[in-house]
From TrEMBL, chain A:
Part of the multisubunit transport protein particle (TRAPP) complex. It is found in: Endoplasmic reticulum; Golgi apparatus, cis-Golgi network; Golgi apparatus. One of its GO terms (biological process) is endoplasmic reticulum to Golgi vesicle-mediated transport. InterPro entries: Longin-like_dom_sf, TRAPPC. SMART domains: Sybindin. It comes from Acer yangbiense. This is Trafficking protein particle complex subunit. The lineage of its organism: Eukaryota, Viridiplantae, Streptophyta, Embryophyta, Tracheophyta. Pfam families: Sybindin. The keyword Endoplasmic reticulum applies. One of its GO terms (cellular component) is TRAPP complex. Belongs to the TRAPP small subunits family. TRAPPC4 subfamily.
From TrEMBL, chain B:
Keywords: Endoplasmic reticulum, ER-Golgi transport, Golgi apparatus, Transport. It comes from the Eukaryota. This is Trafficking protein particle complex subunit. Belongs to the TRAPP small subunits family. BET5 subfamily. One of its GO terms (biological process) is endoplasmic reticulum to Golgi vesicle-mediated transport. Pfam families: Sybindin. It is found in: Endoplasmic reticulum; Golgi apparatus, cis-Golgi network. The keyword Transport applies. It comes from Dipteronia dyeriana. Coiled coil: none annotated.
Amino acid sequence: MAAICSLYIINKSGGLIYYKDYGSGGRMDTNDSLRVASLWHSMHAISQQLSPTTGCYGIELLEADTFDLHCFQSLTGTKFFVVCEPGTQQMESLLKVIYELYTDYVLKNPFYEMEMPIRCELFDINLSQVVQKDRVVLLGR
Amino acid sequence: MQFFGGSEISPSPPTLTVSGNNAHMMYVFNRNGVCLLYREWNRPLHTLNAQQDHKLMFGLLFSLKSLTAKMDPTSAERGNLGVPQLPGQGCSFHSFRTNTYKLSFMESPSGIKIILITHPKTGDLRESLKHIYNLYVEYVMKNPLYTPGTPIRSDLFNTTLDQYVRSIA
């Protein structure tokens, strides 16, 4: 049983640039994952409009009946979000680690074009290591 | 009340002065998206006019519901994105949190949606929303002068609600 079900990275205009599935529920088809990503982008923006006070940066945690969705937005507007089991802890720190990997292995890759889908082997390898390590930590407790 | 860690990037949200000053606003919608009740206790920022604000809130809930139904990792049969979900059908959600507020959401089987917006560090409010739904049943639905689907104008309901919200948040 995996704590993390899937990971999405969307660029600042709402396009899906990375999607990885770790769950057992079956992979979402490509069109649906693109739609879900852009829907999340707009929901994130609308939640800022509805804030009762100033300085709202959008949804950080969505608690659904069967999963939790943690979202992290970088200063440049790239959003990282993971779908995990309800009540999973330390997802904020995992998202920050993933962000670090993104800056190291994607942004510093000279062949990567900004805002385009991520196809970097080193990013994939390191990401799966981090997720695997996280899973081991969760199982150990 | 339960407190969990907030995020570091957020500017300090409105400080908790005394308990009871913690809820921002509340919405009640029926299944057609008509705003039956809007209560506001503490809302310094208004970005839109009231009607637009209600529409946007209903739209946000509708879309988030179809999003969660589509993303549900536990079931394989998830339908199509954007198809309206009946109350109780598909995976729904009960709250979301931003750095400045927390929105708790409940939908009754008849499609009444109760939305309470509180301080981001408020704990789980599912039971409180059920209690508010009970108040609605007692003070609004059992009122013979109330026509279903019209905005709620009941002082008794409002005062009881204010009292209750002050006690929870």
